[in-house]
Design a protein that fits this description.
alpha/beta, Rossmann fold, 6-stranded mixed beta sheet, binds adenosine-5'-triphosphate, ABC_transporter-like_ATP-bd, ATP-binding, nucleotide-binding, ATP binding
Length: 246
């Protein structure tokens, strides 16, 4: 489904809102074709960072640079899956998945939409509206819409939150499979999710970025992989220490 090799993403700078520091100076690289997970306490600026990369933040001042390793512009090559499924309630699944093309005033690629619906297990729900879907199904629609955009850089903001543990694990596997080969920056509050999916794992804190070595196993890692559980525990301990220090 994906043609060109995606670029790495390089973020280097300082963010302020209304003159007050938010984060930085920080340097964060999301490696080409890999999943980079970003954890950190609430309010530290993770969503803001994703919006800055996507070019959709209108209140934050960012002094520095957000670049792709191939020096081509970033925002037009980014798909952002925002927090919450964020579906339009009056549109059915197919129309929600093809929303990007409609907003751009272009004809959606129906064959491609149908293929993505099949691959995300949504074919039987194609004509349902969001109120008739479970939380997990709505998240799948949001993921399908992100895949429909077919961008080399994908930003995911707590994509699988609010799902039960079993559905969340399934969604992580689905996401890892379908996003394979793209440059993914994934914000999550879940240390287990970062340990399963991260080729690289960072914690954004008040004092900057801390990098935690990922488990050795291939992504997506099994939920009961010993190395994954060990990293999950280490991440939780670090997040607790940061919370206690805040
Ligand atoms: N439009 C805005 N105007 C002013 N301040 C804002 C605006 N949007 C976000 N902020 C502030 O920026 C800070 C960072 O918010 P952000 O949503 O990026 O944090 P976060 O780390 O993603 O938090 P969470 O994990 O709870 O989602 C918060 O203190 C928030 O109040």
């Amino acid at each position: 489904m994906q043609a060109a090799t995606p670029p790495a993403l390089l973020i280097d700078g300082t963010a302020t809102i209304g003159g007050a520091p938010l984060f930085g100076p920080l340097r964060l690289a999301a490696a080409a074709g890999r999943i980079t997970c970003l954890l950190g306490p609430s309010g530290v600026g993770k969503t803001t960072l994703l919006r800055l990369v996507a070019g959709t933040d209108e209140v934050t001042r960012f002094d520095g640079s957000i670049k792709a390793s191939d020096d081509m512009p970033v925002p037009g090559r980014v798909a952002l899956m925002a927090q919450g499924a964020d579906l339009l309630p009056w549109l059915d699944v197919t129309a929600n998945v093809t929303l990007g093309a409609r907003l751009r005033g272009t004809r959606p690629d129906a064959a491609r939409a149908s293929d993505i619906l099949a691959r995300t297990g949504l074919t039987a729900h194609a004509h349902k509206r969001p109120h008739a879907l479970s939380g997990g199904q709505r998240q799948r629609v949001a993921l399908a819409r992100t895949l429909m955009e077919d961008r080399p850089i994908v930003l995911l903001d707590e994509p699988f939150s609010a799902l039960d543990a079993g559905t969340r694990a399934q969604m992580q596997e689905l996401g890892a499979r379908h996003l394979s080969g793209r440059t993914v920056l994934l914000v999550t509050h879940d240390p287990g999710e970062a340990a399963r999916l991260g080729h690289a794992i960072h914690i954004l804190g008040a004092d900057g970025i801390e990098t935690v070595a990922p488990p050795a196993a291939a992504v997506p890692r099994p939920v009961d992989d010993a190395g994954t559980l060990e990293v999950q525990g280490r991440l939780l301990a670090r997040l607790r220490e940061q919370g206690a220090a805040a």
